[in-house]
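Box 4.2: Ligand-aware structure prediction
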Amino acid sequence: MRSLTIRKPVDLHVHFRDGAVLDAVVPHTARQFARAIVMPNLVPPVTTAAMAAAYRARIEAAIPEGVDFTPIMTCYLTDATDPADLIAGHRDGIFAAAKLYPAHATTNSAHGVTSIAGLDPVFAAMAEAGMPLLTHGELVHHDVDIFDREARFIDAVLAPLLERHPTLKVVMEHITTSEGAQFARSHGSRVAATITPQHLLYDRNVLFEGGIRPHYYCLPILKRRSHQLALREAATSGAPNYFLGTDTAPHLRHLKENACGCAGVFSAPVAVEAYLKVFAEENALDKFEAFASLNGPAFYGFAPSQTRVTYEERAWTAPASVSVEEHQIVPLFAGERVDWALSRGL
Ligand code: DOR
Ligand code: ZN
């Protein structure tokens, strides 16, 4: 039986929501991760340091007794973001980073940015403060094919943005294409990318296997196999530009299994195990600690966890659902065999 002992992983991209959903999902992330970067796309979005501090307190209240887990907060950028407020929130230790959602690109992005160049004063202030910008990198126009949105964003928005702000640090969140992987690596230490488990495990065919499969629907959408393979190569390369960010995004079952289903894959209950499956298949378990526990903290400038955890290759069955009051959320691998299991903390 293979096993692997590593520093406790960090999830650099999670959605916890709020209220009863938050209470149900936080324990799943807290069980496996030392810290997580928490996305701000609530309704209304987290746009001020006071809102983020209050949200952080609600997350902390949902962490099970005795579990050592630190949520790290982000600010939702809007056309009205004030650079001075944002940087004050960063200096006060509330905001680690700010998230750029192009308006209407994804879940709860209605307040997102309509004119990205209009935020140049914000990006300039972030660059000076060393505060990373996190991008949802999709160009959303009705004449851009959904499968091309990421590559088009890189050319039309991200490349010019990096030229205008040569010291701004950027995380390309949840990359899904070979273009995304290539772009992150070509910018040295100031650009990095998170990669989700589902984009490593699947290609777009899984969305239509025997019928439409809403639980695999997320944004950016799964791409063709050649892109999946490029992402697997990137994640397992050990390069510091890539790190773990699950984009775990819980939606209630009836809102996914719906004529207009929500985007998002809830991976938290099986997240580390899902990545381990990929790294084991690629014979790259020796690169897993860099991807899961070291590269992300190094980019953000915080120390990796001092706690070590052991995973072993041992089969178990993922839960079919996680309950939230009278509702359910269907996780990744629902009811399926999982090959790896958390063994023990040392
Ligand atoms: O699939 C997604 N779900 N992509 C996102 O960008 C947002 C997320 C959510 O919040 O549900
Ligand atoms: Zn996300």
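In the box above, the bound molecule is zinc ion. The pocket of zinc ion (ligand 2) is lined by residues 13, 15, 39, 247, 249 (CB under 6 Å).
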